[in-house]
Automatic annotation (TrEMBL):
Matches recorded under SMART domains: Cupin_1
Protein's recorded name: Germin-like protein
Signal peptide: 1-21
Keyword hit for Metal-binding: yes
Primary residence: secreted
Family affiliation: Belongs to the germin family.
PROSITE patterns noted in UniProt: GERMIN
Subcellular location: Secreted, Extracellular space, Apoplast
Pfam families: Cupin_1
Keyword field contains Secreted: yes
InterPro entries hit by this protein: Cupin_1, Germin, Germin_Mn-BS, RmlC-like_jellyroll, RmlC_Cupin_sf
Length: 221
């Protein structure tokens, strides 16, 4: 009987190990199965280059010393270095970003990264940052100064806001080669096609005409 229990345990352990090995975390929004491999266009991530053909440029990116343009409606700019801009990141599970903020209210609006945890370090300026937990939606915030580090857990809504009269600069590491980003206001009010205004009016307890004004504001954002 003991040997049977051991075999069951061993089978479960092997099944779990195979599931872990062959069911990796998604590297894009979705990857729909198809019956015929000849019709495949995408893989979970990127196709791999022949290792014998790799060159130094595959692992190199320049330009993070250059400030991003913050002359926009939110007063911030994110320069993301993910697998699309640095091919050598493929399968490595990391990416990097530079964040620039205009003085007096430059904002990286509330957003989520569906596939990555973010760790941020401030190198210049003063940022008010925070994230909201899953239900019951507790807000956790902190004011950061140069040299301070803050972590935003994967999938949680978070933001960074410049509360100083000077520019602010931060760098962030993310735990995915393609962490993705969903900016909450843009996704809700600027989706294509638009979400039914009746849905949003009820969800946000707004008049329908107010929702339609917001949708018009965000449709070309």
């Amino acid at each position: 009987m003991k040997s049977f229990h051991f075999l069951v345990f061993l089978a479960l352990a092997l099944a779990f190990s195979f599931a872990s090995a062959f069911d990796p975390s998604p590297l894009q929004d979705f990857c729909v199965a198809i019956p015929e491999p000849k019709n495949a266009v995408f893989v979970n991530g990127k196709f791999c280059k022949n290792p014998n053909l790799t060159v130094a440029e595959d692992f190199f990116f320049w330009g993070l010393n250059v400030p991003g343009n913050t002359e926009n409606r939110v007063g911030s700019n994110v320069t993301l270095v993910n697998v699309d801009r640095l091919p050598g990141l493929n399968t490595l599970g990391i990416s990097l970003a530079r964040l620039d903020f205009a003085p007096n209210g430059g904002l990286n609006p509330p957003h989520t990264h569906p596939r990555g945890t973010e760790i941020l370090v401030v190198v210049e300026g003063t940022l008010y940052v925070g994230f909201v937990t899953s239900n019951p939606n507790r807000l956790i915030t902190k004011v950061l100064y140069p040299g301070d580090v803050f972590v935003f857990p994967i999938g949680l809504i978070h933001f960074q806001f410049n509360i100083a009269k000077t520019n602010a600069v931060a760098f962030a590491g993310l735990s995915s080669q393609n962490p993705g980003v969903i900016t909450i206001a843009d996704a809700i009010f600027g989706s294509n096609p638009p979400i039914n205004p009746d849905v949003l009016a009820k969800a946000f307890q707004l008049d329908k005409d107010e929702v339609e004004k917001l949708q018009k504001l965000f449709e070309n954002a």
